[in-house]
Amino acid sequence: MSKKNKNFLGVVFSTDPDFGYISDDSEPLETLEPRLQDLRVQLDRKQRGGKAVTLVTGFIGTKEDLEILGKKLKQKCGVGGTAKDAEIIIQGDFREKVMTLLLAEGFKVKKIGA
């Protein structure tokens, strides 16, 4: 099933004239405080042509706040990356640096993997 069809919970067509599609795109209304966030930092090489990236997952909040945090981490590491789908991708292996930066911001951080 394509990602586009998942938004309507499997309903393709309805003969009911009063039927309303219910979308499952429930984005959090506000961002949790940093001390309440439980972020995971890991090294990832899957589907990236063997290139290593640092992956930060577990962020709960608005898309704008995720992008602000991602931009701050990319600037401090001096590399590129992206922030989408509730995860931040930093190009290269910057696990230790990202962890110290997030701890300094007040986030709870755990390192996943070796």
TrEMBL record:
<dbReference type="InterPro" id="IPR036877">
    <property type="entry name" value="SUI1_dom_sf"/>
</dbReference>
<dbReference type="InterPro" id="IPR050318">
    <property type="entry name" value="DENR/SUI1_TIF"/>
</dbReference>
<dbReference type="GO" id="GO:0003743">
    <property type="term" value="F:translation initiation factor activity"/>
</dbReference>
<dbReference type="GO" id="GO:0006417">
    <property type="term" value="P:regulation of translation"/>
</dbReference>
<keyword id="KW-0648">Protein biosynthesis</keyword>
<dbReference type="GO" id="GO:0003729">
    <property type="term" value="F:mRNA binding"/>
</dbReference>
<protein>
    <submittedName>
        <fullName>Translation initiation factor 1</fullName>
    </submittedName>
</protein>
<dbReference type="InterPro" id="IPR001950">
    <property type="entry name" value="SUI1"/>
</dbReference>
<dbReference type="GO" id="GO:0001731">
    <property type="term" value="P:formation of translation preinitiation complex"/>
</dbReference>
<comment type="similarity">
    <text>Belongs to the SUI1 family.</text>
</comment>
<feature type="domain" description="SUI1">
    <location>
        <begin position="46"/>
        <end position="106"/>
    </location>
</feature>
<dbReference type="GO" id="GO:0002188">
    <property type="term" value="P:translation reinitiation"/>
</dbReference>
<keyword id="KW-0810">Translation regulation</keyword>
<dbReference type="InterPro" id="IPR005872">
    <property type="entry name" value="SUI1_arc_bac"/>
</dbReference>
<dbReference type="Pfam" id="PF01253">
    <property type="entry name" value="SUI1"/>
</dbReference>
<keyword id="KW-0396">Initiation factor</keyword>
